[in-house]
Amino acid sequence: MPYALFDHDVRIGESASTELGAWQNALRAGLISDIPVADEQGGQVLPRGLTVKRMDEKGGRD
Predict the structure, then answer these.
(1) pLDDT in tens, 39-52
(2) What is the DSSP letter of 21?
(3) Where on the tree of life does the source sit, at the highest rank (predicted)?
């Protein structure tokens, strides 16, 4: 299943075959400034609403 970057429920990044690939695509496209890492509490440090999600075969969110 492909993955892509989403802002809330709107896809804003190119798809990739892995979650890491989707983050890398978003980084190259300038959509994010760095690949996210976990903060001290274990949550990701990203602008609100940005997530990488798995997509269905038609390119929508899974």
Answers:
(1) 566 666 667 788 88
(2) H
(3) Bacteria
Which tokens in the block code for residue 48?
């609100």
Residue 35: both structure tokens together = 């690949």
In the DSSP assignment, the letter for residue 34 is S
Which token pair is 22? 């989707």
Instruction: Look at residues 28, 11, 26, 35 and name the one whose alpha carbon lies nearest to residue 53.
Output: 11
> Which residues lie closer than 8 Å to 43 by C-beta, 6 or more apart?
none
Span 3-58, pLDDT tens digits: 999 999 899 999 999 998 998 999 999 988 877 766 566 666 667 788 889 998 66
Per the CB < 8 A criterion, the answer to whether 32 and 44 are in contact is no
